[in-house]
Design a protein that fits this description.
The chain has two helices and no strands. The chain is mainly alpha-helical. Helix 1 runs antiparallel to helix 2. The two termini are about 15 Å apart.
């Protein structure tokens, strides 16, 4: 899939979450083997906040 996440000028729903909420969603997404694209979007937001989130990702 050739989809690339480009942050919009308005904050996304993920960007409005607290750090703790975002980390919880990331962990649940990895555990549930969610779409790699979705996990990558979460990682992008986490990286923008200088937070980890580079745990085990399933490709």
């Amino acid at each position: 899939m050739d989809y690339y996440f480009h942050p919009s000028p308005r904050p996304s729903s993920l960007e409005l979450l607290s750090d703790e909420q975002l980390l919880n969603i990331y962990e649940l997404a990895v555990e549930a083997k969610a779409s790699p694209d979705f996990i990558e979007i979460i990682q992008t937001v986490l990286t923008g906040r200088n937070i980890g989130g580079s745990g085990p990702s399933e490709d």
